[in-house]
Amino acid sequence: MFGNNLKEDKPFTPADLTKLSGNNDVLDRISSRKSTSKLSSTKKWQRIAFWSLISIVSALLITFFVSLFLTHWGDLVISVDKSLSDKGIIIGNSFDKNGNILNPQVTLNAPSLQEVTNITQSWLPDNLDKTNGSHNGKNYLAYTFYLDNNGTQNVTYQGALKITGVSKHMDEAIRVMVYKNGKPVVYAKRQMGKNTAEPETTKFADDSTVMNTVTENLKPKSHDKFTIVSWVEGTDPECVNDIMGGYIRMSMLFSIAGEKE
């Protein structure tokens, strides 16, 4: 059916084996070149990965050591609770030509300082309460704002400035100066192991409360002016290397006098 043109089988000779071996040598050389090229490419990428890793680790180490010797000063948040805002109390940091607060708020956020070192009070500029809003300086935080009665009745309110976050016991060496209507008071934690104030300061109200304030019968269309200044006091005995790299956060909440927070 398929015809009779079948090829006759030939015996396998030594010459055929030689040819076959020669072909294998060629294949081996081609395979060897490919392997060498692949190995070279792999080593190249390994070197790139190695030096990239070295660069990243170096950058992280530099960042770590810089942060070790610098203090990160956290947020200052000022707010009015709902019961007080319902009576028309607002806060802001500037006025229009008619004496009304521009862009009135119930919460203000003072810009933070990212890198500070210790200073002493005598290095601070004079008249820190003469600039509105944020006026941070080198190594100190400063913020001025107004609490205004925009309602129709007299309001008696209270305010508490509290420490809401701290690391490395930084609060042991800070000073907080609060101006109220132009009168400054400097606050600090009590001396370590004692119940007495640091020199030329007023003690914190408690371990987490810097100070409390009350204003009675704030009349409509009148306001109180506040300036908060804070720094790390270099003359404080607790200003030691251990607090380097720490941070502190504060908040000031205003509410109706007599209400529990």
Short description:
This protein has 261 residues and is of the alpha+beta class. It contains 2 helices and 12 strands, in the order αβαβββββββββββ.
Structure description:
- With about 260 residues, the protein is an alpha+beta fold.
- The chain is about 25% helix and about 35% strand.
- It has 2 helices and 12 strands; from the N terminus they run H-E-H-E-E-E-E-E-E-E-E-E-E-E.
- The protein is globular.
- Residues about 1-10 and about 60-75 have low confidence and may be disordered.
Please, how many helices? 2
Helical residues, percent: 10-25%
What is the 3D form?
Answer: globular
Please summarize the sheet with the most strands: 7 strands, mixed
Q: What is the rounded Rg?
A: 37 Å
Q: How much strand content do the residues show? A: 25-35%
Ends distance:
107 Å
Strand segment tally: 12
H and E string = HEHEEEEEEEEEEE
What is the count of distinct domains?
A: 2
Which spans of ≥5 residues are poorly predicted at pLDDT below 50? 1-8, 62-74
Mean pLDDT: 83
Which structural class best describes the helix and strand composition? Answer: alpha+beta
